[in-house]
Automatic annotation (TrEMBL):
Species assigned in the record: Podiceps cristatus
The protein, known as: Ankyrin repeat domain-containing protein 32
Superkingdom of this protein's organism: Eukaryota
Keyword vocabulary terms for this entry: ANK repeat
Signal peptide: none
ANK repeats: 150-183, 184-216, 218-250
Amino acid sequence: DFSIRDLKMFICSIPSLWLQMFVAEAVFKNLCLQRDITISKEPLSLQKIVCSYFPALRELRMHETRKTHKAKKKKIGQRPCPESQRALQMLNGDKQSQVKVLPDLPDLIFNKCPPLTKQLRAKAEVEASYAKENRGLLAEKVHLHRRNIKGETALHRACISNKVERLIQLLSSPGTDINAKDYAGWTPLHEACNHGSTVCVREILQRCPEVDLLSQVNGVTPLHDALSNGHVEIGKLLLQHGGPALLQQRDCNGKLPLDYLESVPVKQELLNVVHPEDNIGNFYKRTEQDFCSQQRELWLILFSKMLLNFCLVYNLSSPFTFTLREVACSNVLPVMDPVNCKMKTTFSADWLVEKYITELETFQKLPQFLQEISANIGFFSGEQMTALVATLKTMVE
C-alpha cells in the first residue's frame, strides 16, 4: 500500500544501516519479481550486488513503459479484503472487535412507588427526567461507536444506505470519527463514493474538513471508488475539495482514477475541474513521465542503500581491511587450490574470515564497476546518481 514517495521516505528513515540495507534488498527483489527480472538466489553479498543487482538495474530500460494489468470488474459495495486485514480477522475473530451493545435502561415506573410528598415527588421527577436524558445520550453514544460483523460503524451504514438525515445527525454528534475504517480498511467516504450516495459525499465534504480524501486500501482512494462505478458527479465534488493530487494516485493495478473511465470527453471534463487549461493527452504523457522518473529514482535509492551500506557495515574501506587484504594476497600465506583455483589462506578454517576476504576481493574490482555505472549515468540522471558515483569514487580512492 506504500506509494513510491512514502516508500522512499520509509527506507531512508530507518536508523540502522544494517536493517536499511536488508529492507532495501527485500523491496528491490520484489520489484524484480514483478517485472520477471531474474536475480541470484544467493544471500546478500557485494558480489551479488555488483554482478546480479546492477544488471537488473540496467534492465529498467526495457521496463520503462509501465505495464498495467486489467482490473477485475468490481461489484458495487463489494471489495476484496486485504490479506493483512483478513489474517487479523482470522487471529482475533470477527466478533471480538465488536462493541457489546449495552441493554436499554429500564423506564422508571412511578405508579408503583409509595405516596410521596409534593416536594419529594417533584425532586424525583427532575431526577427521572435527567436519568432519561442521560440514558438517551448513552444509548446514542453506544450506537455511534458500535460495529457490525464487518466492522462498519453507523456512519458506514448511513453512507451505504444513502440515509442523508441520519448521516447529518451522526456528524453533529460529538466524538464522531469520519475517518473510521471498517475491518477491511474502508472509510464512510469510500462507501458513499462506492454506492453513489452523492448527497452524503457533499455533506461529508462540507461538514468535515478533516476527512481524508487520500485514504486508500490497496491503492483504491475514494476517487477510484467513485469513477470505477461510474459516479462522475461525485468525482467532481472530490476534485473540487481535494485538488489535482487526487488524479495522481495509483491503485495496486497501477491505474489512475481516470483510467476507469472510457469516455475521453468525460475524462477531459473531470480534468477541467483542477486543470482547465490542460488536455487529457498532455496529462497522461506528463503523468507517465513523472511516474517512470519516480520509479527509476526509487530503484537507484534501493541499489545505493544496498551497495554503500554493505561497504560501510562490513567496513571494507578501513585501514584494517586494507591490511588484512594485503596479508591475504601476499606470497607468504596464500595457497592455490588446483581444482577450484581459489585463494585459500591460513584463515580458511574460519568461514567468516574467508567470506570477508572474498568481499574484499570484490571491493578491489569497484574501479571497473564504477566505469560501468558512469556509462549508465545518462539513464539514471539526477542527484541520487551523482551522489552514488561521488561516494564510490571516494571509497575507491
